[in-house]
Amino acid sequence: MCIKRETLQHNIRRTKLLESLSSKKNGEKPTGRRIYRKITILLFRPENIFYLTNFWGEGIAILSEGGSPIKLVVPKLEYTRAISTSRECDVISSERGTTLINTTISMIKDKEFVFSDSNDFDAINKIQSKTGNENMVIDSNLLYGLREIKDTKEIENISNASKIIDKLFETATREIKENTPEEQIQAILVYEAMKLGARFPPYQYTTNPLIIASGPNGSFPHSETSNKKIRSGELIVIDLTLSFNHYVSDATRTFGIGKITGEMKKVYETVKESQEKGIEHINNTSNFGDIDACCRNAITEANLGDYFTHSTGHGIGLEVHEPPWIKPYSKSKIRENMAITIEPGIYIENKLGVRIEDSLLITKKKGKANDSNDGYSFANFHHFSKDLIIL
Amino acid sequence: MCIKRETLQHNIRRTKLLESLSSKKNGEKPTGRRIYRKITILLFRPENIFYLTNFWGEGIAILSEGGSPIKLVVPKLEYTRAISTSRECDVISSERGTTLINTTISMIKDKEFVFSDSNDFDAINKIQSKTGNENMVIDSNLLYGLREIKDTKEIENISNASKIIDKLFETATREIKENTPEEQIQAILVYEAMKLGARFPPYQYTTNPLIIASGPNGSFPHSETSNKKIRSGELIVIDLTLSFNHYVSDATRTFGIGKITGEMKKVYETVKESQEKGIEHINNTSNFGDIDACCRNAITEANLGDYFTHSTGHGIGLEVHEPPWIKPYSKSKIRENMAITIEPGIYIENKLGVRIEDSLLITKKKGKANDSNDGYSFANFHHFSKDLIIL
After folding, report:
1. B98, B182, B207: best mutation site toward chain A, by most A Cβ within 10 Å?
2. ipTM for the complex?
3. Domains of chain B by range and CATH?
């Protein structure tokens, strides 16, 4: 029963994707039979392959117009696992590397129009030499139009990931003590998360799964969790990113330990106000640039604008960072069932950092849409307090 | 003192890299002053940037001939961390994404000859539009010639990572029990590893840091650690990959639990013999293809050749998988201070898997080189038993 529902869901996604791309072919119309060429979609990125096949691993997925199942070309060592986890796919075994790409290319029919999510220079050159430049669209955003809008099952997974994060914040309040190394807190939180079924999505720019950044380390937005010991009188940024059934949640709280200065409290309250205003502003606007501006203004008004050195947020889903982007001047429209973060921060070099972040779901507004809002509101995936907790 | 030594090490690497590329410029000779154009190297991959700058994070490194320090272009949010961790770099702050690449391009001087490790289609197209195709070499293997040969400090890091793995195998023998879910073993091992300072390098094709594959799951070489409970009478593949100070070690042992069949024992002994013969063969050959053949022959002789579905091994270092590749027909030369894995396996669908893997260092032979060997031997980073342990 469960498998059937999942298969249906994957088939709907495949159909939607093909439909959405049909209109994008250099002005060709799906109606004029004579000029109409079929579409082939080549997917290289594991998140996209998983989204359409349920297989997460190394391989290339080939989706063609005409109703035949997806072809999934995988390295020999992944063949049986791909058969066992994929849904309605023809799984084809190949050698790794260049051979995998060549096997795929040999399966593209002449005169077909090819879309690909690859940004791999060598692979694209090889494919273009078969299809010709003019018959190929390279677009790493190919699936985001679909993936941005989460279905019930996806929301449930993000919600479960979020509940684990909230539990970890509770644990952190018990484990943060003077002289405890940051990496010890990390080890405890990772252990607890894994026991609850969480996993840690790969992010190539860090080797630490979590950010535990105390005192001056907090001034690095992407601090590397270290063996530095937590000291009394410090703020500690705890940024937790984890996944449940492949779906990511991302949230941050900043705690204090011992005697916290007036400046620290002021910075904390500024970030908190900025974050809360930004979230509430979902009720009053129709695009993400406005949310960014709202968070940024609150910090600028406190004369701390220069210390907010990154975007306000990002989409979450099969990746930690995916569209929509909540950044300055973005005109991206807010839409129902998007899952996003809102995470302003203030970073003062050699001194401290404060960040507060929630993962949120965009919902339909219960009341009426107003002039500047298309009728959307939000639900917060997290329930852990945002008041400054001093340990 | 420590910082000085590290700086020296980074400078030596930079000089070696520039020298190695000078000769690769479309036949230009560094001597003929008139036609000689300076070289610029653009590095995008975090491992390569770390190797030359000590900064691990998002950014682009620009190394030019002429003795000026590396320019490190990083997103604004990474600026202070890059300054604090990089060695002898001019750190430049930029916005993320396209702007980061544009900032970099604006710093390439006219008529310079550009090498890049990027395989990013969009980035390469942008750079080529500034430099022209003919003045650019795209080569994702750019640094491997240097990185393949490990120095004392790198070997020490791999050795420390290996010691942690050996400890985890001990832990596994205590924790593997009937009815224990695979993911519970994983959580315990990850916790112990992190307490010892280990980290888990990202690998985009899986969301699990370790492979704990029991019974039929063992037949997937890249099995996803699951909530499946371990049963009596099963073999359990424990494949541990972790890093210490960014350097990776990788080793696998297969354990039994309860009553193990004669077939299981035969498969185990075949893999063990294959792996041990392959390692010993380092003393008798000068290329990696021969090592692969040696491991493969031992399995084929037992009429199980079809069940060994992957390569024999790979290099380890800042990445889990990097050159040299120990695969069929490889002519890659064995050289001193390479760090590699040797990991044959047998996988029987719906039934079982056995893999035995060590990380090894290529050393200089104490005795004399013989006809088919260039004078190299090996040291095993691991000391955990390879006999079949039945729990």
Report:
1. B207
2. 0.93
3. 2-146 (3.40.350.10), 149-380 (3.90.230.10)
